[in-house]
């Protein structure tokens, strides 16, 4: 797992292991080893090295948002006229304290930021919106309601 830049080099076995972990991280080392054509100890060592190198950032579970009354998804497009470091710090702090924000991305182009927000309903979104604009000045906000989730995955292609 060596490389000249800061990213580790992954061989075919590392990639197969990552594929198995992404499919189901709860499966046993024995099962992963069998599926990738190796034995338990080398698989464990590779997983450990990939964790240490930051390739594997964390292991978690995926929860159905409806089970937690978070079945309504909005994509929030934000334009700002302020680009100073202080505004960005306050905006980041506002996002980090809002558990409804699942993703936040700074964009190139006409829209400055896009947020993925999960709430119970439109009224809960409005509560989120009011809290956000109370924390930080925003030039324009457009909320897009997701009518249907067609594809959602955390699995990255390993090949």
TrEMBL record:
Domain HTH asnC-type: 10-71
GO molecular function annotation: sequence-specific DNA binding
Annotated organism of origin: Rhodovulum strictum
CDD domains: HTH_ARSR (cd00090)
Pfam families named among the record's database cross-references: AsnC_trans_reg (PF01037), HTH_AsnC-type (PF13404)
Keywords, ordered alphabetically: DNA-binding, Transcription, Transcription regulation
A single Gene Ontology CC term: cytosol
GO biological process: one example: response to amino acid
The protein's name in its UniProt record: AsnC family transcriptional regulator
Lineage top rank: taxon: Bacteria
């Amino acid at each position: 797992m060596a490389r000249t830049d800061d990213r580790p080099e992954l061989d075919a076995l590392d990639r197969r292991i990552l594929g198995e972990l992404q499919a189901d991280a709860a499966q046993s080392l024995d099962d992963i080893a069998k599926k990738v054509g190796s034995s338990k100890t080398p698989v464990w060592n590779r997983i450990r090295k990939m964790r240490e190198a930051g390739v594997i950032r964390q292991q978690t579970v995926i929860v159905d948002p409806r089970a937690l009354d978070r079945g309504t998804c909005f994509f929030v497009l934000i334009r700002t006229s302020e680009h100073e470091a202080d505004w960005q710090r306050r905006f980041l702090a506002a996002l980090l304290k809002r558990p409804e924000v699942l993703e936040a991305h700074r964009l190139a182009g006409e829209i400055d930021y896009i947020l993925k927000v999960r709430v119970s309903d439109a009224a809960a979104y409005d509560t989120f919106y009011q809290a956000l604009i109370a924390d930080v000045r925003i030039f324009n906000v457009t909320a897009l309601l997701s009518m249907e989730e067609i594809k959602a995955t955390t699995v990255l292609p390993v090949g």
